[in-house]
Amino acid sequence: MIERTAKEALLRLAAQFPVVGVTGPRQSGKSTLAKATFPDKRYVTFDDRTMRELASSNPADFIMAFPNGAIIDEAQKVPEIFDAIKLEVDRHPPVPGKFILTGSSQFRLRTNMTDSMSGRAAFLKLLPFSIRELGEADLLPETPYGLIFSGLYPPLHDPSRNFLREDWFENYVETTLDLDIRDQINPGNLSVFKRFIQICALHSGQLLSMDSIARETGVSAPTIKAWLSILEASFIIHFLEPDTRNLGKNIVKTPKLYFVDSGLLCYLLRLETKEDLLLSRYKGAIVETFAVAELLKFRLNRARKANLTFFRDTSGLEVDTIADWNRTFAIEIKSSIAPGSKMSVNSKKYLKMLNDENAKTVVFYLGDVNMEINGTAYVGWRAWGEFLK
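Structure (tokenized):
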């Protein structure tokens, strides 16, 4: 089994809080992580109808059946369980890490836990595998293109399961629609919603334009706003907000849309081979999506806020990603396999405006060698997300 970087953060949170919620997209490995981290805990899933009915009919008695706590998978499917867990936690002296709750619906799980367990619960978001995790398992390919094309969902990297990429993603999209989305939209709009997801794929790596997506989908902008929230809560997409620090009046203030997984993005763009990716007019946006996801994983795997933005002004100056971590990193993302001094021009202009002597310019590129040229770190794809080390 591939060791997950997030295990350390899960143990850290479980040593402090009686309840820890683990959210993330379907098939990202949430229950596997919980069971591997706490092998002695009882495990129950509310995907099991019998367990779901037992818990919903008498939640207090159900929770009392686990005096030493438990891992409860898909906990959001039984909303009544959260008050019962709160009462159980409050009834006894605090026991850190007593209950580990997992769920694919970030919105439902977090809302129920926040409403019922304020001050008693912490959260960890688990995304698909990172480059680092596959590298430590000696599963990285020679070149990045196959990995970008296939994506990093764990089942696609399990040799015992023999999934074909296209079949797996087809099933994944249908399952997400059926289990996470169907009850949140008008059932008559499911086919339109599926087209909406494909249209969003065309916009990955771009400034969000709800009006444009609405025109292409054929529904209203308010509906698009609601549907984007559903995709974000399901961990299909995420947004980078603009860096609006006091850098002038001509800063673009619209967020950028990204898919969480480049493989799903390639599938929705109907790319059938990695050679199609190499020739695609969307190649740059796909590579940027892949890189931003790695930065996101670096932070979320440590249960830290992402603190990722981007910069663009109305004159055309743009920096792909700004990482405000232990210092500010202005990051350019390039689909080239060779470094070049011109790659860092925009990030250097941005740092001059920022006037922060501790900030650093970084270029992500698709080569294999990490180096520093004229104060700029050039980071090969194998080190994306881990370049601080």
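The radius of gyration is 22 Å. Residues 6-125 form a domain with the Rossmann fold fold (CATH 3.40.50.300).
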